[in-house]
């Protein structure tokens, strides 16, 4: 099996590339930034259909893992560019996969599709209420791929915060670690009783490999959220970070409301993917 990963220069893509290699998979990575040959990376602008199509022709992958995309940031002026980049890259991945008869596309989407607060139970996993441009773009990309699943098998994986080596930004745990290092204190809104889940990069790599190898049983499209089996309150997460980092304290800002729940029933992944 040959797997091509887009966005292989990013946090998730880079870890997928190295993790799949270590497990013996023949894997290639595409990244916008110049690539070092020894890392198995190839430079490619996903905004150019011709460039990506030529790359797919040369690699001849059985599976494309589409992990590339602009991330949600704090600067609202970047939303238009990010929205455009994410849609255009997915259009070009889909076009090339169909043209070159790639067997399967695995699209890495986001839990943000469920909205600002969610508790997803079995049977609700394909719903969505995206509340920002990033989530709306991902939701549209999911539908784009669903509409072309007659021509290329598609698995959509909606991801929560993903943790792993060298994670520097973008989730609650990293923010807590940074606050602890800067002033020795983690501040939690309200009473810290809202719940969170994460997934370890090693576990996500195993899920992606399983999705690349599994028999679809005649199905052309499959969507599943990915969530770690452990559900923790924000207070518990903060206390764990303090313990792991060797000291500090957790304080509560009672003038602020508790953060909303972000929760997926863990059994959904097993039921959907086996």
Give me the secondary-structure topology.
Blueprint: E1 2-6, H1 11-22, E2 26-31, E3 41-43, H2 49-59, E4 63-66, H3 79-99, E5 104-110, E6 118-120, H4 133-147, E7 153-159, E8 161-163, H5 172-183, E9 185-189, E10 195-196, E11 198-200, H6 201-213, E12 221-225, E13 232-233, H7 234-245, E14 249-253, E15 262-264, H8 267-273
Parallel strand pairs: 1-2, 1-4, 2-3, 4-5, 5-7, 6-15, 7-12, 8-11, 9-14
Antiparallel strand pairs: 10-13
Keywords:
274 residues, alpha/beta, 7-stranded parallel β-sheet, two-stranded parallel sheet, 8 helices, 38% helix, globular
Summarize the structure in words.
This protein has eight helices and 15 strands. It has helices at about 10-20, 50-60, 80-100, 135-145, 170-185, 200-215, 235-245, 265-274; strands at about 1-5, 25-30, 40-45, 65, 105-110, 120, 155-160, 160-165, 185-190, 195, 200, 220-225, 230-235, 250-255, 260-265. It is α/β, with parallel strands linked by helices. The strands form five sheets. A seven-stranded parallel sheet has the order 3-2-1-4-5-7-12, sandwiched between helices. The protein has a two-stranded parallel sheet with strand order 6-15. Strands 8-11 form a two-stranded parallel ribbon.
């Amino acid at each position: 099996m040959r797997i091509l990963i887009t966005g292989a220069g990013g946090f998730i893509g880079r870890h997928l590339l190295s993790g799949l290699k270590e497990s013996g998979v023949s894997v290639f990575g595409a990244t916008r930034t110049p690539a070092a040959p020894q890392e198995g990376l190839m430079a490619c602008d996903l905004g150019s259909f011709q460039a990506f199509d030529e790359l797919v022709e040369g690699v001849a992958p059985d599976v494309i893992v589409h992990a590339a995309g602009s991330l949600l940031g704090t600067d609202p002026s970047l939303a238009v560019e990010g929205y455009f980049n994410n849609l255009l890259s997915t259009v070009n991945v889909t076009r090339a996969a169909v043209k070159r008869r790639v067997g399967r596309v695995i699209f890495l989407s986001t839990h943000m599709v469920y909205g600002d607060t969610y508790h997803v139970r079995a049977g609700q996993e394909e719903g969505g209420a995206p509340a920002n441009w990033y989530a709306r773009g991902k939701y549209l990309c999911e539908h784009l791929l669903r509409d072309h699943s007659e021509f290329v098998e598609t698995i959509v994986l909606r991801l929560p915060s993903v943790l792993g080596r060298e994670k520097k930004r973008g989730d609650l745990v990293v923010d807590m670690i940074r606050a602890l290092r800067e002033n020795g204190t983690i501040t939690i809104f309200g009473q810290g009783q809202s719940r969170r889940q994460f997934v370890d990069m090693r576990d996500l790599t195993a899920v992606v490999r399983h999705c690349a190898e599994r028999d679809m049983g005649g199905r052309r499209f499959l969507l599943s959220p990915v969530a770690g089996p452990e559900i923790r309150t924000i207070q518990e997460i903060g206390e764990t970070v303090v313990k792991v980092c060797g000291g500090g304290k957790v304080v509560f800002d009672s003038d602020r409301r508790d953060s909303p729940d972000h929760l997926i029933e863990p059994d959904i992944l097993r039921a959907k993917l086996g």
